[in-house]
Amino acid sequence: MAETLLEQGQPLIQPPPEDSNKGGAWPPSPLTIVGFAFLTFNSAMAVSSWRSGFGAVSFVAFSYLDLAMLFYCLRMYHKIPPGSPLRERLKVAMWLLTTMLTIAFFQLLEFWFQSMGTAENSTKIQSDPTCPRQLPYSPTVP
Q1: For the chain, percent of residues with pLDDT exceeding 70
Q2: 77 with 91: CB under 8 angstroms?
Q3: How do residues 79-136 score in pLDDT, each as one tens digit?
Q4: Is the dihedral of CA 76, 81, 86, 92 positive or negative?
Q5: Judging by beta carbons within 10 Å of its beta carbon (0-12, 13-18, 19+), is residue 87 exposed, middle or buried?
Q6: Confidence (pTM)
Q7: Per-residue DSSP letters for 26-95?
């Protein structure tokens, strides 16, 4: 098929038909709507628990806005015909949004791993002679 397109002088990547872009953006699929509803619900539940702290809330808000802008840019990228300068700018914007989201997740993982290292001392059972259920753990070796 690629050879027949090249023989006819047509580009391999065809622009979308003109009637598909009438009236602006096409309607999103039901799976997209369900996915964003789920993401919005989870983000709202995370933000509503202020016990998490300001850092966690700001991470959730940043991630949500970054993902929303990334999907919007991706949708606009597919709508614009190839060869357009706006398409190249959208490609740069999508790279920047993806990089920022990746860096944010790496910082979250770094924080999580650091807190797991310091949490080891706080989870040890402290012996309390008044509590009968606190027995020291002694593994049996066969």
Answers
A1: 61
A2: yes
A3: 888 888 999 999 999 999 999 999 999 988 888 888 777 655 444 545 555 555 555 6
A4: positive
A5: middle
A6: 0.62
A7: PPPPHHHHHHHHHHHHHHHHHHH-GGG-HHHHHHHHHHHHHHHHHHHHHHHHHHSPTT-HHHHHHHHHHH
